[in-house]
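User: tokens in, sequence out, please.
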């Protein structure tokens, strides 16, 4: 599972679209988090959970809210 997350992350880091980079952070966090849960590495699960929450907050702040504001202004 971490291999899949790393491949997704590496591909998205090559792109110039920041939204893809933020989404890959979420998918990588899910894959790594499930790996750490399987091996009972609770300290890493906690750290990965913090990174996952940070990635979701960045996606909400920079992409979703911005799209909502643009739709309101255009309408």
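Assistant: Sequence out:
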């Amino acid at each position: 599972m971490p291999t899949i997350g790393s491949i997704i992350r590496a591909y998205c880091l090559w792109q110039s679209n920041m939204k893809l980079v933020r989404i890959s952070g979420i998918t990588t966090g899910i894959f790594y988090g499930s790996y750490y849960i399987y091996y009972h590495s609770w300290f890493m699960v906690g750290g990965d959970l913090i990174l996952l929450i940070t990635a979701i907050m960045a996606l909400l702040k920079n992409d979703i809210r911005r799209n909502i504001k643009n739709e309101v202004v255009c309408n």
